[in-house]
Amino acid sequence: MPVLVASDLDRTLIYSAAALALTMPDARAPRLLCVEVHESKPLSYMTETAAQLLTDLGDAAVFVPTTTRTRKQYQRINLPGPAPTYAICANGGHLLVDGVSDPDWHARVTARLADQCAPLAEVQEHLLRAADPVWVRKHRVADDLFAYLVVERDLLDEDWVKELAVWAENRGWTVSLQGRKIYAVPKPLTKSAALREVARRTGADLTLAAGDSLLDADLLLAADQGWRPGHGELADTGFTAPSIRVLPDRGVLAGERILREFLEVVRGA
């Protein structure tokens, strides 16, 4: 039976220049591979060692990139290794099969959202009204499923984020602060539901997962084994569970270690 490996991407396997956390002397820094270009500029990286590990993992398991990114944002990433048959985008709102969104899955997700939480329009309106233009740089909607703000972190009022989280909770939504983005995501929109669907389709009897943010918590708990790095929202809150391995590594080297440990488990299965 195949092993299914579902991993978050940003700040788990791939890293922006600002998130690399290269604390060693420059001469000892790992060689980096650019895996994403946006508007003709390099945007995301992994170490060359991590790139080889991911290639090996793709040959040995069902690797499923699992991201809150929209389909368009995901498709500009050029991951090393075999092209994944499945990918989970928009926090589970889209299940890509050979690069194409499965319409039946998307219809099931949107029906669940309509039934279980406040509509996106209500959340959009609140964000437009309540967010301070002093620190908001962009208002965005992702695939008509959830909303996020791009902010100046140095100017952001962190108490406002906590107040937003309470407001959202009462309407069936979750708030997550990741880098320069504040996400407002419907609670029924989960990576874990999509993970279970891929496991059903592939017949996987062992599922592994990794992630760093609040939006990855359900994914880690749904997998048989999970990993989280020493940075990110989950690390900041001390999130853990018996099935989750907490790594001390931070930044791009955490991504390398996660892949190495994935591969060890897959080869030993």
Features:
9 helices, 269 residues, hydrolase activity, 5-stranded parallel sheet, HAD family hydrolase, 14 strands, HAD_sf, alpha/beta, TPP-like
Report on the structure:
Helix 7 (217-222) links the parallel strand 12 (206-210) and strand 13. Helix content is 35%, strand content 26%. The longest helix has 17 residues, at 252-268. It has helices at 48-60, 71-74, 103-116, 120-130, 158-169, 191-202, 217-222, 233-237, 252-268, and strands at 3-7, 32-38, 41-47, 62-65, 86-89, 94-97, 100-101, 136-142, 146-151, 173-178, 181-186, 206-210, 225-228, 244-246. The strands form four sheets. The chain has a five-stranded parallel sheet, sandwiched between helices. Strands 8-9-11-10 form a four-stranded antiparallel sheet. A three-stranded antiparallel sheet has the order 5-6-7, covered by helices on one side. It has 269 residues and is α/β, with parallel strands linked by helices. Helix 1 (48-60) runs parallel beside helix 9. The mean pLDDT is 97.
